[in-house]
Design a protein that fits this description.
heterodimer; A: alpha/beta; Glutaconate Coenzyme A-transferase; three-stranded antiparallel beta sheet; B: alpha/beta; nine-stranded mixed beta sheet; 21% strand
Chain lengths: 254, 296
């Protein structure tokens, strides 16, 4: 059976869902699929969201490719971060069970095996406002027992800081090419929230390097609606860059 | 105070080995590259560079001028990782103070305000505190009793920035979408030097943009350098965008020592005029290569 939507399109909608109900806050997506998701959310069920052009201009709802509605230089972004009026979807080179994220360096920090991006704004983002993660290749290389350099902080570290420091910390969801996960497991551990169409919970467990909480009934990630598909294909990404960035997951033909 | 009009080499003559130098712009955007290239021609060593890092950081590392970098990243934006920064980290040839982007902002603000530190929530619980054992927390003296990071002032011996327009007195104007933190870099520094695309009469500044585009004033700046193309290959909109083809050439050359030697010889062995001339030749070669072959 051919699904009516590609893996990338399912992921765009799963990313968009991360911002449902957020109201008038800054949606900051990193990467193509989360960016399409934020724009889709703003065009459909979350018109109050603020979205930038990737530089310093805020683009008005209803026409995310053209009309400027505001100015957001980095200095103002930092103040928005500290004020909590933001929900960012970041990437992760490593992510552990409690959501500790590494984008800085792999191996010993003093002389890393692989220097990556650096901590960027991850420490400040995670301590100040809601954060979600996008992982285009769900694997044990990413979902690790322990992150080498904790940039974005997870629930265990937030709890250790005490209620005053941790009160703005909130990790919403992790969207991957296989599944949607959240931190609703025991002690805010990661759990499967839904698996994408054609993916089994076992596939997700196998690709994860720590024990995942799995609910008794694992729902399937919802498919894009026809209206959402029309927007993704016709307006947000007519060149089809999404499917190049995220090829379909090979599925067991049985 | 009124700034002096200087050449890039005269600016570098004001700098000393071992100084802490802040560099404005962000990633591969509006970097004072002509001033950086002038440092490459100098014998300055052991510099501590504070930057929202881009090819400024990479070039200075590659030239052997850097002891320590203070940053939250070093990126070419459209190419995620600064290649020289990456190599130096993996080979352990430089020291790093790795900070959250907001902490860097706060450190500059503290220095600009002549405060020892400013409290910030960013960094709490993260390994930024583990890899920077010199960082301390501070407890709020008020009823909330909160613990916060005491981000120390990032005092700079000198700041280097590049803006679109300036007058000869040191008033500077940005015409692009983002001021970045160039004003804070200047205020955090003992001496600040600004290169610009064009020096115009003071009366001409408001012909280009509104009063709020006048980001730095002459109380913040000690020297002005007129340097058309002085941010190349980083973006300096609206005067020019990032030179993506040249940036890709730079990043590819950085991947091997032999290629890098060739790149240095071709672009970085002479003065700014010869750099700009070599870049024009590179662009002409790109254009020729992209045209369909029509000869029989």
């Amino acid at each position: 059976m051919t699904l009516p939507a590609s893996t990338a399109e399912v992921c765009v909608v799963a990313c968009a869902e991360a911002w449902r109900g957020d109201g008038a806050i800054l949606a900051s997506p990193m990467g193509l699929i989360p960016t399409l998701g934020a724009k889709l959310a703003q065009l459909t069920f979350a018109p109050e969201l603020l979205v930038t052009d990737g530089e310093a201009t805020l683009l008005a709802p209803g026409d995310p490719n053209r009309v400027a509605e505001g100015w957001l230089p980095y200095r103002t972004v930092f103040t928005m971060v500290a004020s909590g009026r933001r929900h960012m979807m970041m990437g992760a080179a490593q992510l552990d069970r409690f959501g500790n994220q590494n984008i800085s360096a792999i191996g010993d920090w003093a002389r890393p095996k692989a220097q990556l991006l650096g901590v960027r704004g991850a420490p400040g983002n995670t301590i100040n406002h809601p954060v979600s993660y996008w992982v285009p290749r769900h694997s044990r290389r990413v979902f690790v027992e322990r992150a080498d350099m904790v940039c974005g902080i997870g629930y265990d570290r937030a709890a250790a800081l005490g209620p005053a420091a941790a009160r703005f910390h909130e990790l919403r969801r992790v969207v991957t090419n296989l599944a949607v996960l959240d931190f609703g497991g025991p002690d805010h551990g990661m759990q499967i929230r839904s698996v994408h169409p054609g993916v089994a919970a076992g596939d997700v467990i196998d690709a994860t390097g720590f024990p995942l909480a799995v609910p008794a009934e694992v729902p399937v990630t919802r498919l894009p609606t026809p209206a959402e598909l029309a927007l993704i294909r016709g307006r947000l990404d007519p060149a089809g860059r999404r499917d190049q960035e995220l090829p379909a997951v090979p599925r067991d033909p049985g | 105070m009124t700034a002096a009009v200087l050449s890039a080499d005269e600016v570098v003559a004001e700098l000393r080995s071992g100084m802490t130098i802040g560099i404005g712009g962000w990633g591969s955007r509006r970097k004072p590259m002509a001033l950086v290239r002038a440092i490459l021609r100098s014998g300055l060593t052991d510099l501590e560079i504070v930057s929202y890092g881009g090819p400024d950081v990479g070039l200075l590392i590659a030239g052997g001028h850097v002891r320590r970098v203070v940053c939250g990243f070093a990126s070419l934006d459209t190419i995620l990782l600064e290649p020289h920064f990456r190599q130096a980290r993996q080979q352990g040839t430089m020291e790093l103070t790795e900070l959250d982007e907001g902490m860097l902002h706060w450190g500059l603000l503290a220095a600009a305000h002549r405060l020892p530190f400013l409290p910030i929530r960013a960094g709490l619980g993260s390994d930024v505190l583990r890899v920077n054992p010199q960082l301390r927390t501070v407890r709020s003296p008020y009823a909330d009793d909160e613990d916060l990071v005491a981000m120390p002032a990032l005092r700079l011996d000198a700041a280097l920035i590049h803006l679109n327009r300036a007058d000869a007195a040191g008033n500077g104007q940005y015409l692009g979408p983002d001021p970045y933190f160039d004003d804070l870099f200047c205020l955090a520094a003992g001496r600040a030097f600004m290169s610009c695309e064009r020096i115009v009469p003071t009366a001409g500044l408001l012909e280009s943009g509104p009063p709020q585009s006048l980001l730095v004033n002459r109380a913040m700046v000690h020297g002005v350098v007129e340097s058309p193309g002085g941010a190349h290959f980083t973006s300096c909109v609206p005067d020019y965008g990032r030179d993506e083809a040249f940036q890709a050439h730079y990043a590819a050359a950085a991947a091997s020592p032999e290629e890098w030697q060739r790149f240095r010889a071709e672009y970085l062995s002479g003065d700014e005029a010869s750099y700009q001339q070599a870049v024009r030749q590179f662009a002409a070669g790109q254009t020729a290569a992209s045209e369909p072959a029509t000869t029989p």
